[in-house]
Amino acid sequence: MLKIAFNDYYIHSLPEGHRFPMVKYELLPKQLLLEGTVEEDAFFSPGIISKEQVLAIHHADYFQNLTELKLDRRAQRKTGFVHNEDLILREQIIMEGTRQCAEYALEHGVSMNIAGGTHHSFTDHGEGFCLLNDQAIAAQWLLDQNKASKILIIDLDVHQGNGTAEVFRNNANVFTFSMHGENNYPLKKETSDLDVPLPDGIKDNEYIYLLEQSLDRILKFFAPDFLFFQSGIDIIETDKLGRLGVSIEGCKQRDKIVLNLAKELNLPIVVSMGGGYSEEIKYIIEAHANTFRTAQHIFF
Questions:
Q1: What is the span of the domain harbouring residue 220?
Q2: 3-state secondary structure of 62
Q3: How many domains does the chain have?
Q4: C-alpha closest to that of 126 among 85, 157, 167, 93
Q5: For 14-23, how does the pLDDT look when each residue is reduced to its tens digit (9 = 90+)?
Q6: For residue 16, what pLDDT is reported?
Q7: Can you tell me which residues the record assigns to a coiled coil (predicted)?
Q8: CATH number at residue 291
Q9: Residue 66 near residue 123 (C-beta atoms within 8 A)
Q10: To which H or E segment does residue 181 belong?
Q11: CA angle, 239 as apex, 203 and 213 as ends, to 5°?
């Protein structure tokens, strides 16, 4: 069964100015249920990530200042949020969602978090609406529990996974792959194990070619036993921040490539949703829903 992390905190704890396009967290589960892609029992409600697991990735002083609301205004502005207790609790629930997804993926082959993909969070600070790094925390938990030994993080959000690259820059057991807009945020890129910068306006065929070529290249010298997929849909042509020209169908083809790879190689995979900022919410929901539909079709 496809297991999906979703908690009401994903929606109701967001500051007022950030409700759109974050309304997707409310609409996406409803769409998946309405169309019959999944049943109610597919969803599980994560609790709060343990401090121990957070500190395996993030610096203790940063996490303490974050949870005690002691970060200064400059540090808060860098994250894009004005911090409050509900927001920080929300982040910890999202972290636990992705960690629990890792457990479910070991059992069922795939699991997905309606939220997550917080790849701009570094070991010692947050950026770009990311306070803690969910895939990094879950990956380190797998390594520490000897549940995986070689992890590939496939980050296909339009923005480089700069935080994830920094977290694992000296860890040979985690391979970070980011395919992102060359001219998009962040202005200063970190160095992933493999970065594929994309030109503005890139279309489906070239995008898919570069993705397949990159995955083939990685698998020639890195043999993962677990995958994480940051499946941001801000690559689509309607996205107001993305600057790329990929169609919704092209984005679906991207998901098929990654999820088929996991299935064919018998690699457990955790999918976090990442970004999506089209002006019309229907495009956001359709592109994200395609990821869930594709996972359901391929694995179940």
A1: 3-299
A2: helix
A3: 1
A4: 167
A5: 766 555 457 8
A6: 62
A7: none
A8: 3.40.800.20
A9: no
A10: strand 174-181
A11: 35
